[in-house]
Design goal:
The chain is an alpha+beta fold. Helix content is 32%, strand content 27%. It has a seven-stranded mixed β-sheet with strand order 3-9-10-16-13-12-11, with helices on both faces. A five-stranded mixed β-sheet has the order 20-19-21-22-23, sandwiched between helices. It has a three-stranded antiparallel β-sheet with strand order 5-4-6. The structure holds glycyl-adenosine-5'-phosphate (GAP).
């Protein structure tokens, strides 16, 4: 599947030509309680965002979908939930303490700081990651202007370590907030072997927060300093034919984002050129999505060989090996690492769902989420707020369904406005209780996508929504 996409693509600036723009999306997210700029009462803070009531429901649905697909439905996977603050030696072993940096450059005039590699890529289309001298030279030669003030007066490009430092009682020196969730997985490899009946090939999965002191955060929730990852370390025998398993993982990563609502035409794979690979990586591919600001990394997959387990063995003096009783062989497994960003997944779910449609009454904005990820599955409306018998019946229906579905009760304003609100938060069904309900025990169910309305018996609502 999808093999035809499996080629090295040249980075391009191709944009999403749909109706959705980042401005429209951020407006909707704030207006309708998906995502708010954090600390707005203090003027906002460092490109941080809070997930609002519908945002957190959406996020939880996506986490559940991921966990079911990659952990619960598979016999070869187990999950963990490790700490955010880990032993400082772990980051020495993984190379983060010395090597986890991005290239930064400052405008000498306005003092604004930028990612040097991003500036040169904008200008040349070339990825110069890791080549500080060339970046400095290119900015000079092309007389690159500061995007903030228009000046042309740059410092040299230099490395900036992105780990967040903190202090901890009883520990000498700095400790760090984890810059990725993967580290917590590697250090539990031995415990998983000792406590679980896992056999190679098997994987360990984790969902959790990661922290990076990004030089420039931005593009809404695309690049944050505090974000969530969903990561897997999949351990294989070094003698195994890894390429097939690698391709299967890529297909499954793509399958996941299609289940979230992305369209295939907005996805592509970017294989990192051999010359740019980390010394331990045999192969790294990014799955990119066509965001309104161009194709950008959504997920990644790397063959990290035995680098991590070997390094942690060396730094901890613990043997992190696997014994294969059938082949009577002991070895350090190799690892394939499928990594997923949660916040970017949410962004894709929102972008892919967004539609503006002409309807009889004018225009509507609707989030056409796949129904299984919609934050609210059904909204229940008494036709009139001031008719206690309607409100009472609607509440009864709410109570009878609340254990099965996430619901919303709304008795504000006219029905048309209530429909618009539910369209904008992507609720698949609106259930209206009217005077006929009291007589014939039926309700009107309105479908989000077709806007068709149907009379359904109260007793059949549960089955109607489930189907
Ligand atoms: N363990 C491998 C690893 O962390 P990565 O490509 O640096 O790889 C994995 O990060 C994923 O985490 C990315 O594909 C992206 O979805 C997400 N991610 C990385 N940095 C992010 C940031 N600053 N804000 C939001 N998501 C980010």
């Amino acid at each position: 599947m999808a093999k035809k996409n499996f080629k090295t693509v040249k980075k391009s600036k191709q944009k999403l030509t749909e109706q959705v723009t980042m401005e429209k999306l951020t407006g909707l997210c704030k207006r309708r309680g998906f995502i708010f700029p954090a600390c707005e009462v203090y003027g906002g803070f460092a490109n941080a965002y809070s997930y609002g009531p519908y945002g957190v429901e959406l996020k939880n649905n996506l986490k559940k979908l991921w966990w079911k697909k990659f952990v619960q439905d598979r016999a070869d996977m187990v999950g963990i939930d490790g700490p955010i603050i880990l032993h400082p030696k772990l980051w020495e072993a993984s190379g983060h303490t010395t090597g986890f940096s991005d290239a930064m450059v400052d405008c000498k005039k306005c003092k604004k700081r930028f990612r040097a590699d991003h500036l040169v890529e904008e200008l040349t289309g070339e990825d110069m990651e890791g080549e500080l001298e060339r970046m400095t030279q290119t900015l000079k030669e092309l007389k690159a202007k500061c995007p903030e003030c228009g000046a042309f007066d740059w410092t040299e490009a230099r490395d900036f370590n992105m780990m967040f430092e903190t202090k901890m009682n009883g520990i000498e020196g700095e400790v760090y907030l984890r810059p990725e969730t993967a580290g917590a997985i590697f250090v539990e490899f031995k415990n998983i072997l000792d406590s679980m009946r896992v056999k190679i090939p098997f994987g360990i999965a984790q969902i959790g927060k990661a922290f990076r002191n990004e030089i420039v955060a931005g593009n809404f929730t695309f690049r944050l300093r505090e974000f969530e990852q969903m990561e897997i370390e999949y351990f294989i025998d070094p003698k195994m034919e890894w390429k097939k398993i690698y391709d299967q993982w890529l297909d499954q990563q793509e399958e996941f984002i299609l289940e979230v609502g992305a369209e295939k035409r907005n996805l592509r794979r970017y294989e990192h050129p051999k010359a740019k690979l980390s010394h331990y990586s045999k192969k790294t591919v990014d799955i990119e999505y066509r965001f309104p600001f161009g194709f950008k990394e959504l997920f990644g997959l790397a063959n990290r060989t035995d680098f991590d387990l070997s390094q942690h063995s060396k730094f901890s003096n613990e043997k992190l090996e696997y014994f294969d009783p059938v082949k009577n062989r002991r070895y350090i497994p190799h690892v394939l690492e499928p990594t997923f960003g949660m916040d970017r997944t949410i962004l894709v779910a929102l972008l892919a769902a967004y539609r503006e449609e002409k309807v009889e009454q004018g225009e509507r904005v609707v989030l056409k989420f796949p129904k299984h990820i919609a934050p609210i599955k059904a909204a229940i409306f008494p036709l009139l707020k001031n008719k206690p018998e309607l409100v009472k019946k609607a509440k009864q229906i709410f109570d009878s369904l609340k254990n099965r579905f996430v619901l919303e009760f709304d008795d504000h304003g006219n029905i048309g406005k209530r429909y618009r609100r539910q369209d904008e938060i992507g609720t698949p069904y609106c259930i209206t209780v009217d005077f006929d309900t009291l007589k014939d025990k039926t309700v009107t169910i309105r479908d989000r996508d077709s806007m068709r309305q149907e009379r359904v018996k109260i007793n059949d609502i549960e089955q109607y929504i489930s189907e």
